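Q: What does the assembly look like in three dimensions?
Context provided by user:
Components: two
Sequences:
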Amino acid sequence: MTQSQSGGERPAGSFCGRTRREFLWQAGGGFTGLGLVDLLSRDRFFGGTARAADAVTRSANPLAPKLPQFAAKAKSVIFLFMYGGPSHMDTFDYKPKLYELDGKTIAVKTFGRGGKKNEGRVVGPKWKFKPYGQCGKMVSDLFPNLATCVDDIAFLHSMTADSPIHGSAMLQMNTGKILSGSPCLGAWANYGLGSENENLPGFVVMLDPTGGPISGAKNWSSGYMPASYQGTILRSAGVPVLDLKRPEAMSEEAQRRLIDTLNAYNADHHATRPDNSNLAARIASYEMAFSMQRHAPEAVDLASESPETQSLYGLDEDKTRDFGRRCLLARRLVERGVRFVQLYAGGAHNDSNWDAHGDLEQNHTYHAGRTDKPIAGLLKDLKRRGLLDETLVVWGGEFGRQPTAEYAKGTGRDHNAYGFTMWMAGGGIKGGVSVGETDEIGGAAISDRFHVKHLHATVLHQLGLDPERLSYFYNGLDQKLVGVEGAEPIKQIMA
Amino acid sequence: MPRIGTTTLLLLLPVLMPRIGAADDSAVSAEGARFFEAKVRPLLVDQCLKCHGPEKQKGGLRLDSRGGILTGGDTGPAIVPGKPDESLLVAAIRQVEDGPKMPPSKKLPSNQIDTLAEWVKMGAPWPGSKDVAPATGGTRKGEFKITDKDRQHWAFRPIKRPDAPKFTDQADVVNPIDAFVLSGLVAKGLRPNPPATRQELIRRATYDLTGLPPTPQDVDAFLADASPKAYEELIDRLLASPRYGEKWGRHWLDLVRFAETNSYERDSAKPSAWRYRDYVIRSLNADKPYDRFVREHLAGDELADRDVESITATGFFRLGIWDDEPSDREQAQFDALDDLVATTSQVFLGMTVDCARCHDHKLDPIAQKDYYRLVSFFRNVTPYRNGGPTDEVPFIEPGHEKEAAEQTMALEQRREQIRKSITGLESEFRKRNGSDESEGRRPDIEELRYRFYRDTWERLPDFAAIKFEEAGELPGGLFDLAKRSRDDAFGFVFEGVLLVPKSGEYRFHLDSDDGSRLSVGGKPVVVHDGIHGEGNEQTGTVRLSEGRVPIRLEYFQRGNGLGLSVAWSGPGFDRRALSAPHRSQRTKADLSEVIRKDGARVLGAERFERYQVLRKQLRELTDQKAVPGSILAVSEPGRVAPDTFVLIRGNAHIPGDKVEPGFLQVLGAPDPKIPAPSDEAKTSGRRRVLADWIASPENPLTARVIANRIFQHHFGRGLVRSPNNFGLQGDAPTHPELLDWLASELIAQGWHMKPLHRLIMTSNAYRMSSRANPEAQAKDPTNDSLWRFDMRRLTAEEIRDSILAANGTLNLKMYGPGVYPEIPAEVMAGQSVPGQGWGKSPPEEQARRSIYVHVKRSLLLPMLESFDLAETDRPSPVRFSTTQPTQSLAMLNSTFLNAQASLLADRLRREAGDEPRAQVRLALRLVTGREPTEGELARGLDLIATMTSREMMKPEAALRAFCLIALNLNEFLYLN
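A: Here is the predicted structure of the complete assembly.
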């Protein structure tokens, strides 16, 4: 009954009314960087503003790049989503006492998919921890490569979420709400800042080869905002974006002729309604689509990457090739101005992701094994290219795991939203720090407790957006990613 | 409420406690003062006042004075002086389970917690502080008041039919709509645009009423029709078309968050949700009066003249999102009620009552109490469970009731027949095998099934509301815990049929660790709930008639040991076990196991096989429903609704004052009296009362809201541009008198909507051209005064349907389960199990209108989604109209578009022959609805020629390429 948790948290002291009228964005450009209106007005295609579906509301292009509300630390975000919920006490949250307790039944309050329990059999951490870096951060043997980057990382050991169930917890980590239907973090970034590359989506999602996460597209949805802000699935091989490839029989020249003919028809039509900017916007959208077709494939072509770089991400090993490839793509995308990249480590169900209910050792060895080197490679590569300063990297799952066993036998751990670890690096985040703590067995956060919305607030803040002011008018009030109650960014980890 | 522990009670207690009159200054001892100043004040300042001080008062709480602490916040006084264990503040800093945990970011060191507890124990001495609370910020503390100004808000005033303004020059005034519009224009010094061309008009009207383009024949006929009534007849013809319900039904489905799945992890399909969609289409086509439509939605099961239609309408209650495993079940129940309040109030009343869930509405004169009074109407609605008797009603086609009853009877007879054969074979087995009674006796319970659940409870939960983990059969006919997957924190529900050998009195014995409940014939006979061990057997007696009686056993186990023992005794027999013996004691196998093992030997192969076939048949027949179809519908568990309480801050665990059903106070309607339900009633009758109030001509909102929606979908925007918000902060109507006139006209027409369509569409205002007029544009760039008709882009469904219509493959079959157009594998890859929940439909089914496409919340048809389909999870009053390059990519490159272009080319060859000029001409006619110019023809021919000569395309391919362009024309996608 923690009051900050339940669905309807709206303290009477806070003001949930709108502070300003947010007009519906309904017209104008698409997901590409330079929004249509902006582009077209430069070309003197038309002057003035676009028009909304209600044919009255004037609005600007939704995805024209916008200035942040204050100086941004980060231009882009790479969210490495460890779907399924990695175990914090087996990775980054060192709990020496837990080893001694292995196998003992102790009193501990837990809440997972198996319900609430008051006691359980401790599963000692299955890996050893060692200090790394200047900061001496203790990291488990699961991440020998990533451990060498700890001086660039800020660990948040006291994360909490409202739900220990995948469905609602995934939605909360992505949209801030446990109820379905709200825009996700990437959509808010897209909405707040627009995009900077007209040939690539502003918000890209790359899925695990085993499948998407549960609830599928709800995890990259724009909710009640226009579809322009939603995440676009980008494939790491083949045609990167849906419908980007011309039909087999259509050459580029042939398609150019088609579009030229289309433009001629549409120009005639537009001449009869010169005041309708949407008609012009639609004409231009074909040019942008054509241009995307030409340029987007280059972004996903890794041929120009040196063997050394490819090896840095683990592309030369079977185990790490897939995730390494996606990490390298993530770097190429942010280099090209993509605002928000979300990468799923793990997909589908059960042990295809970090959801270690059965054999913890097997599960985490596998998932850490295929991501450790690629993530370390990403951080190092970003750093040596000077990109880490402007790229915020976020790592974590929808929750953590319990210190105790789920079943009578075995090492599987159930879900834990009372306390878990996430980390951030780059984008104005201090390296080599750890904030917040769980109790001595990792059961629950006890100091500097942070909620998912604090994490969201921090991401927005680093992007130069004020989480309390970034709002979207819907259903009678100014909706915010951090909810009506608001949330402050995590100041302790800011450089 | 098993999960509400002592803490919650603690929270509630102080609210009820009398204020302790406290010590003023003089009563503070020197010791108390020292303790406070040295230890308590610094602690409060450091740890608490940032959120509970002069700047902020989170939860309405101020901790910077003794008075503030005693007054407390939303959940009542923060402390009870002298009693730390009863003080909310102390509980919060101790961070007890299930309570508020303060400070939110950490737990205070134990010495600080002890300090505060000690201070409370001392009586909370605070030198120099009065016991009167200082004012908190915001308006919450102020009493909720409705002012005269609130009541005078335009939308809250009674609807009065205004007189239409009179004009001497009547040329521009066809009907009163024009008079209201014209008077606005005149006031601004504007003139209405000239009329649209007839060709523009037929395209506009056809799309507006059917969502489809007029055929070239329709256009020709209309252009050739010299009758002065030609246009009126066109409107009448379109209004009579079945396509009307498909077009306008879609507008309604947007509002009621129509979807056919539940969202969340499984996003499973709702049973028969498509019947609701069909109901909407049928109702609109029949021009059902809107007040009836409303009553059917809210109380279709409570109407005296209820029928299949009205029951189907109540599917409205079941369309929302549903999390089958919420982390907080009580809260989730109120989230579901919130969905009903939000949808009902926004859709029917144009009010965002849901903003008052946690506190009084910040903008509108709606008290938090109003919200819960509205909740109270729905409080007795059975929580959604995604199917089963509480969500589904057998679908019996009107007039076929007798048939359905016969089918039910026939099915039961067939089951009985098979049972007899099985029993016969079993007796024979026993005889031949020489089994004794205990080994081979026919079990007392047949068709026994179990459902296994995992969770922690202290009392038996409402299992029906919980997702089970596993289900199966227990052919041995004995209650058995053996199918559990673990030894603690689990539950079982067993259901079967008890064979009562003769009528008489029976005694049931029940012992369990932990709780259990045994029901026979639908009534609890022995209840042994709670946490306890075995050894305290409970019994119950019941009279039963000979025959087959349903039996149900619920059981849960929390931790530390488990056990279950059930038995019965009755006329002619002593105690006999109904549960499996504990594993250690289990020596003899039950009959079904024995037969499985030895059946072939004892009975012979043939008869053994027959026995197995019969068993399988019985299993299948048990699953079979006599009436195969079902209706997704609302239900209530009985006539008495549970109490409704205001929930403090919307928190399901902190009930406040009790409320009774009531209407929005600002509208001034007297409190409703809920008539006592009749003895036959299955529901509380509350929703009927709400429906009557909403559907009343006296309700100032209902008619205005729907009249505005009708206007909105003809003109592209409502007279009120916030169609779901008629409150103080909604948009004021651009033409208030016109809105009232339309609303009163709708009521005057008996709430029939078609006459209103006809009025609107025959007005001059509707028939104006959409062309620009620089002068008017300068004076009124947003066309607030309706000096012209606004162009609009087709909706997602209109675009897809028009493509199919253009190439002649559109399948106009109506109704039935949703269809599954092909979705690219790349999009399916986003699902956790690619392809799950998306069927395969044959090509002709895939070519049906978009309204019949299955609506899966987490997997929308990309083509529709990209053109701004409505958000599925909440009421969606206005569609976006975005323009993005992804749309262009799909329109040029997608498999769907290229296949459709190819079909269009086929049609052109079929209908226009092999001559390119005729082909191009027909294509352009089909997509624009008009005769192409010479230049347009030449451009198309030129493209085809170039594609053939320069790109080396075959003529067929060149024609396909031209067809693709035709389907991409702005003129195709935009309406003048």
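Follow-up: DSSP finds ten helices and 21 strands in chain A.
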